[in-house]
Amino acid sequence: MATLAQSLRWKDSRSEEDLLETQAPYEALENEAGSAAVDPYCLRPLPNEELYLYIKRIDNTGVVRQHDPSSGRVAWKAIGGSCIAASLLVGLLLPSAYRLLAGYQIDRLKQAHEQSIKELKTLEYEEARHINMDRMLELAKTKDFVAPTTEQVQFLQPKGKDSVASLNPKK
User: Rounded CA gap, 147 and 149, in Å?
Assistant: First the structure.
């Protein structure tokens, strides 16, 4: 079977016999009759197949890097610069974060104020409903309350002029 390189023959200065030798270098095998035959299943030899390269292991565990006196300064400068950059970034982002949190707090306070106003209106309505004279008379009838007699009523008089409850205001 011919490959593409074999089927396309370029004009070359070498002879055709040389080309055939390089294209199909099969090893000659002797069959039982003793004649040399070409093995059709044998692969061509790889280039530089006969070379053996010995790779020596290199052990660098005993090698110590030479100390660089400027590397410490460079590292500390990098650490300081990154700390300054981080503090500047935090300083730039802090006002906007504070404004965002203050907005949330204002919104919570507005909601609490609205809820307290609703509760106050509800309590005022309940108080007005309970204080209503018609409602009190209705409750008195359901609980069997009666008006007190004159003997049951006692009026307290203040003990003197310096008492807390007085009928005449001070002039």
Answer: 7
Residue with tokens 């004159």: 150
- What whole-number distance in Å separates Cα of residue 139 and Cα of residue 145? 8
Residues 6+ apart with CB under 8 A from 38: 24, 26, 27, 28, 29
Q: What number of CA atoms fall less than 13 Å from residue 2's CA on the CB side? A: 7
CB 23 within 8 A of CB 31: no
Q: How many CB atoms lie within 10 A of CB 70?
A: 7
Written in H, E and C, the secondary structure of 4-53 is HHHHCCCCCCCCHHHHHHHHCCCCEEECCCCCEEECCCCCCCCCCCCCCC
Centroid of chain to Cα 155 = 76
Cα–Cα distances in angstroms (integers) from residue 47 to residues 34, 124, 155, in the given order: 30, 105, 132
User: In angstroms, rounded to a whole number, what is the distance separating the alpha carbons of residues 77 and 70?
Assistant: 11
Residue range 126-162, pLDDT digits in tens: 998 888 888 888 888 898 888 888 888 887 776 666 6
| Predicted structure pTM score | 0.37
